[in-house]
């Protein structure tokens, strides 16, 4: 603003803002047409009416500053610098699109311009932006990350969790709330008890302001200040842009919830008309220039449509590409393996793995609740805070979805975060980030964004902590393509799997059974490390195969000893890697023994044991001499009293009995 209070702006500056808004507007108008022609399918959410926000914010961004957006992000994607051709091809679902056509309208991505999506989970991108900013701060970079979301997202818990993290850690992130007064058909006064989002963020500790989002000049000025603050180490900022969408929420929306007169009233504030009129009045735009601009944009759109029309569909053969990236082969050996065998508890083994990773890879940091000052709720991270400090052993507030999302954002930003979630029951609060984002991102982005995050958590029952701390839900994660799921059950795996997991370019979940933390055995040094791809045969035998993992391994081994006393030699296979399953080892073992019992602390219905049985049915049916059997937990929430808890869990005598029964069956 000039001293007189009137905006002062160069001709180029104003022309670019006008051009940017017009590009977004005309592009989306064409998309609406193409939608009615069924060239574009799925959900289509246009931001027509809201262009001043994207244009104003993007104006001052540098190419390497990251943007995280929503499903209403065509304008943001174009203005961040993705070519219109690639965006349009993505709208068509063609392989030349900016996400290989796999994402469509709601999932635009581009690694070159650091456009991280396109996120169709309302609020889902907010912690990712926090993590990207955290990675920049930890790596000493002075750039900002920008995160767009609607006022609807500001009702989600993850909004509060993420802003709190950004404020606590003073991260260089600028939050842009596009308050368009509706979340689908829900008006602002039904969404929020107090409609101004900036009050909420201010209360959290993020300096915030509200601007007229129909004025690109005001948005741009506010964004410039916020970006400067973020870049200069002053921490996060939030700008709430008061704006309005002129069209329906999506193409399926008959707009029953709002009065057409209200829409017309807002159209009077059209940000494009407003800027263009002002430019005409002040002589910043000359006769004929607007027409020339429109013509240039129409030509660009025509070209983009032509490009999309001519582009190819992804061939079916590459459907499975980029579900996961391959592991490096060979894996690098651990940098500091033990030199001598020694009696070691699983807890110590995990701790040493973490210590080694922190010491030998400066990108590694730990993040989670009570992992630092408290030493970890199961004391796995004990002493690491004292050795590595608060930055690298980072205590978080109680915010599973927020800090897990920040972890994957930090992984995208070049770090190697190890996120600890206290127990698998609590990980359900973070499932959105793990399943909807971390696991899907690589495929959804057409191979552009992999998420090398490691997430550790305790699992299992046996400590009388009842129904909300005791379940074995790891098999829920084994359902999800894109994740690697590990279940170390020996001291060697506990000690060395982490180093391998950190080399995985994909998200890895490590499940640590609570009853194994005190399990102590001689740790045999593994100078080459351990693999994270194969199951392990922990005991050989040819009469029957007992297949298990995690906390049930030692029950299966004990059952095998009891069976041996009866002259039955059981082979015990430790799955170790729950996804992707090493089916070859299972099939080979069953081909030798012809009988199998699967032992799984999860519930039977929909569980991992059933999956293993199905695989053996598909791949080893003709090797079997008896029906497969399984021993799982009783189908009840785990109760508190010890006698009942023990009754729920797989017991050695049940395994022995199942094996005997299986051996008694005649083909
Ligand atoms: C977690 C989640 N809940 C519900 C939806 C369905 N949904 C999609 S958009 C939307 C409204 C979001 O409103 P807002 O955040 O204000 O963004 P706007 O659409 O207004 O730009 C809803 C409820 C979703 N995609 N994700
Ligand atoms: Mg909204």
From TrEMBL:
Residues 327-346 are annotated as: Disordered. Residues 327-338 have a biased composition (Pro residues). Its cofactor is thiamine diphosphate. InterPro entries: DH_E1, Pyrv_DH_E1_asu_subgrp-y, THDP-binding, Transketo_C/PFOR_II, Transketolase-like_Pyr-bd, Transketolase_C. The keyword Ribosomal protein does not apply. Gene3D superfamilies: 3.40.50.920, 3.40.50.970. It catalyses: N(6)-[(R)-lipoyl]-L-lysyl-[protein] + pyruvate + H(+) = N(6)-[(R)-S(8)-acetyldihydrolipoyl]-L-lysyl-[protein] + CO2. It comes from the Bacteria. Keywords: Oxidoreductase, Pyruvate, Thiamine pyrophosphate. The keyword Oxidoreductase applies. CDD domains: TPP_E1_PDC_ADC_BCADC, TPP_PYR_E1-PDHc-beta_like. Residues 344-519 form the Transketolase-like pyrimidine-binding domain. GO terms for biological process: pyruvate decarboxylation to acetyl-CoA. One of its GO terms (molecular function) is pyruvate dehydrogenase (acetyl-transferring) activity. Its EC number is 1.2.4.1. Heterodimer of an alpha and a beta chain. The branched-chain alpha-keto dehydrogenase complex catalyzes the overall conversion of alpha-keto acids to acyl-CoA and CO(2). It contains multiple copies of three enzymatic components: branched-chain alpha-keto acid decarboxylase (E1), lipoamide acyltransferase (E2) and lipoamide dehydrogenase (E3). E1 component of the 2-oxoglutarate dehydrogenase (OGDH) complex which catalyzes the decarboxylation of 2-oxoglutarate, the first step in the conversion of 2-oxoglutarate to succinyl-CoA and CO(2). This is Pyruvate dehydrogenase E1 component subunit alpha. It comes from Marinobacter segnicrescens.
